[in-house]
Design brief:
The chain is an alpha/beta fold. The chain has helices at about 15-30, 65-75, 150-155, 175-195, 200, 280-300, and strands at about 1-10, 35-40, 80-85, 95-100, 105-110, 130-135, 135-140, 160-165, 205-210, 215-220, 225-230, 235, 245, 255-260. The strands form two sheets. Strands 1, 2, 3, 4, 5, 6, 7, 8, 9, 12, 13 and 14 form a twelve-stranded mixed β-sheet that branches. The longest helix is centred in the C-terminal third of the chain and has 21 residues, at about 280-300.
């Protein structure tokens, strides 16, 4: 059995220094508790929202984010992972999940498709998310990759541990309030289900770090501002999908600790014969398309 830790972060949008300091403090807490696997969230350097300040938080592959991951891994003789906006040598920005052990960076996975307004800040990757680390194979998947059948197909029965993270935001309480509140309850349940059930599809324990806290930012192609929160669902499961430890979003920033057995098992669930593992709902489906169209144009104009 190995003690694993997942970080729940309340990021300051676009403030790399503040976010790195917070992640180091929380990871130190996990390391001092004896954790040998430490997961940081998606976008742990910048947070995420449609906010131009995020542009200034893009880092190189060997920048401050990588230094934090490798220093933590060496400090605690641990496996440490998380994703950040990374500008590569070809000039493109990607959502890069880096995995480090005491020897340095041992693997990288680029999120396959940006989600909604994320399209404004990075382009997708095409690797399979399987990272060889010593005698084990580690799977990496980020946020809405946990929603897609294709992710299961490339990882299923191939990995001994899933390192995951997310920055999943809520549906705002717009009128008609009853309708939007209903959509938000479903959205919040899906955020938790996507992370907690993923082990059942791939046959490996899941360590899932996430964001919590409030978010206010612009809305693409809309006069109103977005005001909502992150859905959290920071948790650790065994290979059968049983939740061992969890931190709910209302508990705020902190660390989840749980003992897991690294190793693959026969998956308990077969993936459905459709693109999405879980229903998205009408509003997320519509926003997925319009913010993708907006975001790709914004990325070409502002991020290259």
């Amino acid at each position: 059995m190995v003690l694993a830790a997942a970080i729940q972060q309340e990021a300051v949008i676009g403030d790399v220094a503040a976010n790195l300091a917070a992640c180091e403090r929380l990871a130190d807490e996990a390391g001092r508790a004896g954790a040998k696997i430490i997961a940081l969230p998606e976008f742990f350097t910048t947070g995420i929202g449609f906010d131009e300040s995020i542009k200034a938080g893009v880092l190189p592959p060997d920048g401050k984010a990588t230094t934090l991951l490798t220093s933590l891994a060496k400090r605690y003789q641990a496996l440490v992972g998380g994703s950040f906006l990374c500008r590569d040598a070809d000039g493109e920005v990607r959502n890069a999940y880096l995995l480090a052990d005491p020897t340095g960076v041992v693997g990288r996975h680029d999120k396959d498709r940006p989600t909604m307004w994320e399209n404004a800040f990075y382009t997708g990757g095409d690797d399979d998310g399987v990272l060889d680390v010593g005698e084990h194979r580690i799977g990496a998947a980020v946020c809405w990759e946990l929603m897609r059948t294709g992710t299961v197909e490339r990882l299923r029965s191939r990995v001994d541990l899933m390192m995951t993270g997310s920055g999943w935001w809520s549906i705002p309480p717009w009128p008609p309030r009853a309708v939007f509140d209903h959509w938000e309850r479903r959205n919040r349940a899906t955020a938790r289900t996507a992370a907690a059930s993923f082990a059942k599809y791939v046959g490996a324990p899941v360590v899932h770090a996430a964001h919590a806290g409030e978010l206010t930012c612009a809305m693409p192609w809309a006069p109103m501002r977005y005001r909502g929160r992150f859905e959290g669902s920071t948790l650790i499961t065994d290979a059968g999908g049983t939740v061992i430890a969890e931190r709910r979003p209302e508990e705020g920033q902190g660390v989840v600790l749980g003992e897991i057995e690294i190793g693959r098992r026969a998956p308990q669930l077969d993936p459905p014969r459709r693109y999405w593992l879980h229903p998205r709902g009408l509003l997320p489906a519509a926003v997925w398309h319009y913010q993708r169209w907006h975001g790709r144009r914004w990325y070409r104009r502002h991020m290259r």
